[in-house]
Amino acid sequence: MVSHSVALPMICFTTLWGLVGVVAPFLVPKGPNRGVIVTSLILTAVCCYLFWLVAFLAQTNPLFGPQLKNETIWYLRYFWE
Amino acid sequence: MVFRSEEMCLAQLFLQSGSEYDCISELGELGLVEFRDLNPSVSSFQRRFVSEIKRCEEMERILGYLLREIQKANIAVPEEDESPLAPPPRQVLEIMEQLQRLEMELSEVAKNKEKLRRNLLELTEYTHMLKITRTFIHSRSRHEALGPQYEEFPTMETDSVSGCTGMQRLGAKLGFVSGLIQRVKVEAFERMLWRVCKGYTILSYAEVDENLADLDTGEISKSVVFLISFWGDQIGQKVQKICDCYHCHLYPHPENDEERADVLDSLRTRIQDLNNVLHRTEEYLRQVLQKASESAYTWVVQVKKMKAIYHILNLCSFDVTNKCLIAEVWCPVSDLANLRGALEEGSRKGDATVPSFVNRIPSNDTPPTLLRTNKFTSGFQSIVEAYGVGDYREVSPAPYTIITFPFLFAVMFGDLGHGMVISLFALWMVLTEKKQNKKRSSNEIWTTFFNGRYIILMMGLFSVYTGLVYNDCFSKSLNIFGSGWSVKAMFTNQNKTLQTNALLTLDPNFSGVFSGPYPFGIDPIWNMAVNRLSFLNSYKMKMSVVIGVVHMSFGVVLSVFNHLHFRQKFNVFLLFLPELLFLLCLFGYLVFMIFYKWLAFGARDSSQAPSILIHFINMFVMQGKDITPLYPGQMGLQIFLVIIAMLSVPVLLLGKPLYLYWLYRGGKGLRRRRGYERVRRVSEDDNSTAPSYEDDEEEGVDEVTNREFDFADVLLHQSIHTIEYCLGCISNTASYLRLWALSLAHARKFSTNNQFTLSFLCSNATLC
C-alpha cells in the first residue's frame, strides 16, 4: 500500500494550525468583535490540532492489526493493490 | 462579548417635573440603564402613578377584547417593522377614548347579533316543527301505524285530528303540545311521559334533517320534533312540566291546515328578513374590526411602553422642594455620554425649562453584571447563563463556549455526511434570517431551533471536521490517501489460507504490512475490520481523557485572571497552585502516560506493552514492583507525584482560612492598622467596586477589616470547595468518557440504520 511518513503530516498540520492560531489573530481587523474572533481562532486551532494529533499518534505504533474476513482480504488483494 | 463583564457605575438622574415622561421614554428606547427602586417600603397601590397604570391596564383589557374579536373574524393584523414610540400624555386620552368607543360599539353589535340569531333559530325550529307535525297529522289520518314510535292507548281510536270532535264528545278537550327536543333526550322523555301520564298521551316524533346549533351551549346537535296529544287539563299540566324539565322548545300548534299554511308563510318571510338583517350586521361588524385592526398593533405596543414608563416612574422618588424626580440607575461607564444625550433629547421633547441631568455617585454595593451580546453570541451566552450568571467583573466563560461547546458536540457526533446536512440546514436558517424573523411562527420547536441557528451551524461545521478525522461519512469510510495497511505482504499462501480460515489478522510485525499512519484521520481499513471496536475503543477513550484533562486545566487557569483582578494575589498561591498541582500530578500524568505509550511501544514489543490503567491504579496504592516499568525511574517519579498531590489537598483546605485569620490578627504580627484606613472586605464573596487607590500593592499588607471575621464560616466554605474540587476532578475526568460513549453509539446507530435502509430498499426493489 501507500507508504506514509510520520514527519510530513506532522509538519504540515502543525504549520497549518499554527497559522490559524498564531498568525491569523494578527490579521483580524479592528472592530467591536475583534476579541471574540481572536479567541475563537486560537481555540479552534488548539482543539482541532489536538484532535488530529491524538488520532495521528494513536496510529503511529499500532500494537495489533485489523482482523479481516477472508472475502475482504481477497477483495483488497485484487482491487486495492 | 467581552472577557469580563462591563464596568458599571451608580448614577443619579434628576428629572424635571414636566419632561420626566419623555426622558424615561428616551432611556427606554435605548435600553441603557437599570433602575433601582427608591420606594421599597411603599406598596404598589400607594405609589404615585397608580392611576395612570390603572388606565393603561384598562386599555390593555379593551385591546385584548378587540384582538380576540379580530381573530374570531379571521382578519389579519398587520405588524410593522419598527415599534412605535410611547405616546405623549395628551395623546393618551385620545387613544383611550377611541378604544372605549370601539369597545362599546363592538359589544352592542355583538349583543344585537346574538339576539337576531336566537330569533332566527326559534323561527327555524318553528318552521321545522310545523312541517313535520303536518306529516304526523296526515299520516295519522290514513290510519297507518307509525310503528313503535308512539304508544297506542288501547281504547282511543287512531283517528285523524279532525276527528277530535269525537273526543270532545267525551267531554274532554284534546290538547296538543308540540316542540323540539334534543335527540339524546328523546327516549327518556318518552319513558317519563308514559310513566307519568299512564298512557293518556300519544307521542309522535321525527328527527329534523338540519343540524341546529343550540345557542346556549354552542354545540350543534340533532333535534327531534315531537307532538304530544292528550286530553284533560291535568294531563296537560303534567305534560307542560315534563317538557320544561327536559328543556324542550315549545311552539303553539295550529288548529287546522289553513292556519298552519298561514303561519308557515309568515315564518318564511320573517326568516328571510332576519337573514338579511343578520347578514348586514355581520358586514358592519367586519368593517369596524377591519378598521380597528389597522392600528391595533400600534396601540398594543404603545400601551405596553406607556405602562413600562409609569412603572419606572413609580420607582423614582419625588423631591418636592426642587420639583423634580430623582432616580438611581446602574449605568455602564462607557455609556455615560449616551445617557446624557438621551436626557437632553428627552428634555427637549418635553419642552422643559430646565434640562434634566445625571450625576455619578460612588457606591459600595455590588453592581449588576452586564455582558453585551450580538445575535451570534447571544445563543452561547444563554447556554452559559443556564448554569448561573457570573459575579460582577468576573471572567466570563461565554467567549470560549462559542468554540468548545460545538467542538465537544462534534466529538460525540463525528460524522461527515450528517455534519454536512446539519450545516446546510443551519446555513439556510441563517441566510433567511430576516424573513423568518418577520414570520413570527408560534411553533415552539421551530422557534427553539431557529434561535439556536448559529450554535447549530458551528456544531455542524465542527462535525464535518471530526467526521473527517473519524473517517466516518454516513458510517462509511473514505479512502483519500490510501491505506497504510497492506494485505499483499501477508499474502504468501494465497488461496489455501483463505479457504481454511474465515478470519485473518494483519500483523504489524511483518515487514511491509504496516507502512505508516494514515495522514489525516483513522485508516479506512478499520471500517472493514472485524476487531474495529477494539482499536476504536482504546483510541476514543484515551482521546476523551486527553481532551477532558486539557479542558479542565484551561478552566482552572482561567481562575487566575479572577484572582489577579480582584487583588487577591494570595489566592493564586493558596487556591490556584494546589488545584493545578492536584489536577496535573494525577491526571496530567495519566495524559503523559497515554502519549508515552503511543510513542514508545510498537508492534515489536506489543506483548510487553503495559496497561496504562493498571499502572495508574498501582500508582495510587504505591505498588507495582512486579510489573515492568514503562520507563526507568517510573516508580520514583510516581511516588513523588502522588505525594505532591496529597500535600496540595491540605494546602487547599487550610491555606486560605489560616492566611485570612493571620491577616485579621494584624498582618505581619506586628503592625496593626485601624481607624482611617479605608476598609475593605476580604471575604471572597463581596468585592468592593469603588475605585481602588491603594498605596500598597504588597501581598501581605492588606487592611484590617472592621467586620467580624468568622473563621468557622471561611473554613467551612473552603472545606466544601476542597471536597468539591477533588471529587469533581475525578468524577469529571471520568465523565468525559461520554465523548467516547456517544460517538460509539452514533456510529453503531447509523451503521445499523444503513443496514435496515439498504435491506428495506433491496426488498422493495426485488418486489418491483
TrEMBL record, chain A:
Gene Ontology CC terms, in alphabetical order: proton-transporting V-type ATPase, V0 domain
Transmembrane segments: 6-28, 35-58
Membrane topology, from the record: Multi-pass membrane protein
Residue ranges of coiled coil: none
Molecular functions (GO terms): proton-transporting ATPase activity, rotational mechanism
InterPro entries attached to this UniProt entry: ATPase_V0-cplx_e1/e2_su, ATPase_V0-cplx_e1/e2_su_met
Main location: membrane
Subcellular location: Membrane
Keyword Signal: no
Keywords: Hydrogen ion transport, Ion transport, Membrane, Transmembrane, Transmembrane helix, Transport
Functional note: Subunit of the V0 complex of vacuolar(H+)-ATPase (V-ATPase), a multisubunit enzyme composed of a peripheral complex (V1) that hydrolyzes ATP and a membrane integral complex (V0) that translocates protons. V-ATPase is responsible for acidifying and maintaining the pH of intracellular compartments and in some cell types, is targeted to the plasma membrane, where it is responsible for acidifying the extracellular environment.
Family named by the database record: Belongs to the V-ATPase e1/e2 subunit family.
Subunit structure: V-ATPase is a heteromultimeric enzyme made up of two complexes: the ATP-hydrolytic V1 complex and the proton translocation V0 complex. The V1 complex consists of three catalytic AB heterodimers that form a heterohexamer, three peripheral stalks each consisting of EG heterodimers, one central rotor including subunits D and F, and the regulatory subunits C and H. The proton translocation complex V0 consists of the proton transport subunit a, a ring of proteolipid subunits c9c'', rotary subunit d, subunits e and f, and the accessory subunits ATP6AP1/Ac45 and ATP6AP2/PRR.
Annotated protein name in UniProt: V-type proton ATPase subunit
Annotated organism of origin: Amphiprion percula (Orange clownfish)
TrEMBL record, chain B:
Family matches, as Pfam families: V_ATPase_I
One of the record's GO molecular function terms: proton-transporting ATPase activity, rotational mechanism
Keywords: Coiled coil, Hydrogen ion transport, Ion transport, Membrane, Transmembrane, Transmembrane helix, Transport
Stretch list, region Disordered: 682-701
One Gene Ontology cellular component annotation held by this UniProt entry: plasma membrane
Family of this protein: Belongs to the V-ATPase 116 kDa subunit family.
Protein name: V-type proton ATPase subunit a
